[in-house]
Amino acid sequence: MDKKTVKAVIITAFIAAAAIAVAVKPEFFTNIISRTANLFMPVFIGTAIAFVMNMPVCSVKNFFIKKFRKISERTALIISVVISYILLLAIITGIVWIIIPQLAESVKLFISNADRYYNNFLKYCSVLERRDSFGFFAALKNAVEGLGERIPAMLEATYSKTAGIIGGAADLLIGFVLSIYILLSKKSIRRAVSSIVKYFIPKHYNVLKKGYCLVYSTFSRFVVGQITEAFILGVLCYGGMKLLGFEYALLISTIIGVTALIPVVGAIIGTVPSAFLLFLIKPIDAVWFVLFIIVLQQLENNLIYPRIVGKSLGIPPLLVFLAILLGAGLGGAAGIVLGVPLMSVIYVLLREKICGDTV
């Protein structure tokens, strides 16, 4: 047998043995995958941060190259990484020292008034229950009354989640530092990956390169655009709420901004708990807030989103909702965020394959 046949036989035998082993003892391999993922978590985090930061780094780098023609590309890259990360640290510092204390104050204020809000809610439900022929408000009242029994379990779960976040702080710090090295060495990494792909699968190199360019373009445009759009929406929400005199403006605007990271339906998801919070304080405020969010959503859909993210990622609205549903089912919150750009990549590839459209 020639070398090519031997190589094919070895690969086939390895895949078959691995498949049999997984079928016989799946929990062993699940444990290995989980441990490996935890071990390489700083690498995943660093890669994700580098991916998000690559666009501002490239923008600053191009500015320096155009402005100072004698500067070398390596020097421009180093300066752009330093400037971009200083700006990132400044933003993080601003959030930690300015926004988080105010959020904590809002949460404390809400907790101190929780009993009053709870009694108000039961009173509203009692009034509405008499007019509700479907029994919706009676069921809602019973659910809220039984919430007290579940609070200890909820606090315990929150504590464990918080402990997990604190435990992941070291991974985040390592990943942050690693992202700098990735950005400074991205050309070397790209050359190394290209050499490996060319060596093992030379026939598919051009196809994989084209697919990588498509994935990178789609994800970078989506991620950076979605973060920018969510920030602008949160700021507009805060300004509008302060102008209209709503309570808990910063807390609710933060909820709206964070949920806006979820494409299409994010702000709507954030509106539900926010309106409920205002309903506990003053029911009419909840109605005005929903109307305010509807106006804000129209502004976002017609002006902000098209200019920042683009009119679309190239997929019909039905597929956007399908991507969100599938992403939620398969990957939770991360699946919702990543589902839309993934669906966009699949849609463009299939369109090119079936219809012959260029990517």
Describe the structure.
The protein has a domain at 1-39. The chain starts with a helix and ends with a helix. The protein has 359 residues and is mainly α. It is built from 14 helices and no strands. It has helices at residues 3-24, 26-39, 41-67, 73-112, 114-129, 136-145, 147-167, 169-184, 186-200, 205-244, 249-259, 266-281, 283-308, 317-355.
Quickly describe the structure:
By secondary structure, this protein is mostly helical.
Write the layout of secondary structure elements.
Blueprint: H1 3-24, H2 26-39, H3 41-67, H4 73-112, H5 114-129, H6 136-145, H7 147-167, H8 169-184, H9 186-200, H10 205-244, H11 249-259, H12 266-281, H13 283-308, H14 317-355
Helix pairs in contact: 1-2, 3-4, 3-8, 5-6, 10-11, 10-13, 10-14, 11-12, 12-13
The number of distinct β-strands equals 0
Q: Which of globular, elongated, flat, extended, rod-shaped describes the shape?
A: globular
Gyration radius over CA: 26 Å
% residues in beta strands: under 5%
Structural class: mainly alpha
How helix-rich are the residues, as a percent range? over 70%
H/E element sequence: HHHHHHHHHHHHHH
Q: Which oligomerization state do the chains in this entry correspond to?
A: single chain
Q: In DSSP terms, counting alpha (H) and pi (I) runs of 4 or more, how many helices?
A: 14
N-C termini distance: 41 Å
Q: Name the poorly predicted regions.
A: none
Q: Mean pLDDT, rounded to whole units?
A: 76
